[in-house]
Design a protein that fits this description.
Mean pLDDT: 78
Distance between the termini: 165 Å
Radius of gyration: 40 Å
Low-confidence stretches: 20-26, 31-44
Largest sheet: none
Order of helices and strands: HHHHHHHHHHH
CATH superfamily of one domain: Tetracycline Repressor, domain 2
Number of strands: 0
Amino acid sequence: MSVTQKVILAVFARIRRDRIAVIGACRLINLNLTYMTVALKAELPASRRQPAGRKSQQRVKEILQAGRKSQQRVKEILQAGRDVFAEKGYERATTAEIAQRLGISEATVFSYFRGKRELCARVIGDWYDEIIEAIESGLPRDGTVRQQFAFIVRTHLRLMLVNGTDLCALVLSEGRARHHELSEALTDLQRRYTAPLMRVLAQGQESGQIRTDMPLRLLRSMVFGPMEHVLWDATLTKRRIDIDATADQLIDVLWAALTPPDLAVSALQRFRVEVAEANRRFEEAAGKQPG
């Protein structure tokens, strides 16, 4: 065997011994760590040896239960708030009375709402959302523009009046007062509330079924103005009205005002007025002449 071969064999033998030593040291370290872990667990009380996963699950369960309780409490406060605001209006309603009806402290109400203004805005907002949802979900989108328009008017009147006029009066009076602290909050709600009608009117203008000589905002006022008058009348007189019959009559009147005028008929009507006026003047002049 040559000298080179002997040197190579010696190097390989050294590497093998070092590898065995490293493996042994690692096994010894793992053994020590295992022993220390067992000893530490033995010293801990049983409650602290509970797996982290189980404790996390319990915590999540507690959080979900607290969240459900909070949601239920918010619903109760909103319902009591709706009753009190509807009965007494915004100015005379108090968070103290709302809390009293629920048998809770006023501080509990404030833990969910910052004050009366926020609570009232949420009450009205939820009411608007209910009406918007009813209109959006029931709107006959495959129907004609007139059918969609009629549905909006009829649904608006029915939902405003079917459960009484108290909450309707709250929106009509308190929300329309000049510089009222609820006005800003209600402005956005009313914009969302009138959006379905605006879309139907715009669709009607595009198809030629709605007059285009007036802007959409004015047409919107033409529709909601008369409806608001009907609601005010029902609210102030406290008398029940035939909602469907009133809606049908209102739809006929409003649709006639919204449709494009017939230019030929309009020109003929103007001509008849001008002829009648000329006739009147001629007769007056003839009567003044001396016999």
